Amino acid sequence: MENQPLLFVDNPLSDPFNVLDREDSSLSWQDLLNNHSKLLMAILEPKTFLLKRINHAFEELTGINSQSVPIHHQNISLFDLLADVESSFPDQLYRRHLLPLVLRDVYGLSHNRWRFLDEPLVATFHSSFTTEPRHIQFWLRSQHLHVQRINPEFDEFADFKLHDIDPENLVLHPEWEQRLNLDNYQVTGQWLWEGLDVTNRELLQRLIGSLVDRESIFEEQKFQGLTQQMKSLFRSHGGILLSVQHEKIQLYRVKNHQIKQTTIASLDALESSHFLRAASRNDVLNIPDLQQDCPTNFERKLVSQGTRSMLLIPLVLEYQQDNVGSPSSQLMGMVAMLSDRRNNFDHLDISHGKKLIPALRTALRTANQLPFNSIHPAVEWRFREEAERRSWGLAPAPIIFEKVYPIYGISDIRGSSEERNHSVQKDLLEQYGLAIAVIQAVIKHQEIPFLQQLQLNLEEKSHRLASEVHVEDEVTAIEYLRQHLEIYFDYFQTLDEPIAQAIAHYRAACDNPHGSACTAREHYDYMILDITTRLRATWDRWQKKMQAIIPHYCDVEVTDGIDHMIYCGKSIHHKFSPFQLHALRYEQIRAVCDCARTCLNLKNDYDTTIEVTHLVLVQDITIDIYHDEQTEKNFDVRGSRDTRYEIVKKRIDKGRDLHTKNRITQPGMVTIVYSSDDELHEYRQYVYYLQREGWLDSTLESGTVEPLQGVTGLKFARIRVLPESPPTKIPMETIDQS
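Above: the chain's sequence. Below: its structure in token form.
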């Protein structure tokens, strides 16, 4: 019995898919295989791959219910359950298994050293009991099938004369599988499919492969991908990476689909923590209940954010100093996997963590050696070249892009300082009014000269704040209330109910992270955030269109408004030509016009004096830029001529008309600053195009820019941006050429 084929005899006792009714309590090996084995098993119909029988492990993985409706009536193909196979794969797999059967049964050729059918395949199943896909390694057993040629006269292998070949000398040709005429063969029997869940092994292998490539783990897309893989492997809700350099700690984590970086002052801040305990042991450490064992402020903060258990994977570099003494070690960093459930991690997770340590250590060391993180895609290729050089131990070489054209623009929020001062003034007056109400309530209950003098002080300060607000008032005026009034609140509120109500109103106004009245400031902050968000979103939409013209470097800074700095040239992309330059310049002005339109209805949305101005700086002379690793900027300019452009960038938005002394930028208008007549001629053409598209008004204003410090000879042209409307054809002769 034991030597009989497993599935293909008539005796039901040898069928592992037959659940036996047994009177005794012991289980047969068939019961164990069907109901308790981790091995997934299925019987398939050849060619169609339809499921005929499945065991309990297969049911549990796929969620198929074969009890109410027999599986052979559900018409489910194995490949209906797989997530990552190409449409041609079933046919390829069928041909691969049919070929040796044809050689054996039709030509009498069989070889005990043909091993290609024993090669396991890996596929992805979507499991019914977890949201994460499961990776299954499987085999197809087809040796017991039998094949018969329907039309013996048709032989697709006639030219090989297979009947005359010795099986020991047979060499399988790759194209034979495709030669098979599938319609000319009758296959009898059923396939046995066997699978094994290797999800953890696959995740580990893929993680290690991602970690040891040459991309920096601090690149946003790479870091997010690694974080997601780690979360799947360890069944966690998140993770953090600590990188230690020169006793300083940088903490990296994914939040709102972005990398968030935080600096921890030094290792001393983690003294007595689980982190340093794991580092000193140089071993993976499981913290099953962090809430009950929380020795430092950092770990208490993790608990406040929902962490309940933690797995720490220390990355310690061991090395020998001068070949003498015992090895030394240095903490490079640490990975912390976090879970919102207690006792989430177990011995298997510890084992996985240990296997990942070499790859994690390599990835962190590589990333720390390369000062090139968050590099713009258009210039990433050059940084990768330099990273490759340095990985081979070569001396650093400067990263320079020569003869690039600068394209600069800015949308500036004008009047933001005055508006914020006004909001600070409103908040201070509100809080002082509430403070005076408290004092008045106390005096009404108990008239004391000291309180009367305190009321006079508060009223004097309130009158002064109503007339003017100084920069320091935002701090000093609030501090005065805390030191001279709020310290008495605990006593005051015991005196009388009206006093307690006045104090409650005061405290309600200050119940926020600032600890002071801040309604107006919050409104101001929201307004500025809303404006800059609109501007950034508008610019980003256009930037995608501009990148489609030619890849170029673009840096955007968001403060009170946004400004953009574009560099384009052949040294950045080899296909660059004057056509792409002019197309980019035109698209930039269109984008700035759209930013202006975004802000046209600002006063309708907010009761504010804030306005937004827009400027484009023209320079038709190329500059050289280089990456300075000693600064936080991605690029600096090189040479005195290039430095002049940087000076103009920093000061031009404050520029004034030489004759009228008015600011050259005006709300609702686009100002173009240029130096030469050739630049003006080029941009007049763009202005005409924009007028024809309905972006700009027909009247062009112009003038000379008042000399800036170290810069003279600049001129400007200014034109109003029109609200969005259907395109209007404007004849060239109607455009003001003054």
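The first strand starts at residue 40 and ends at 44.
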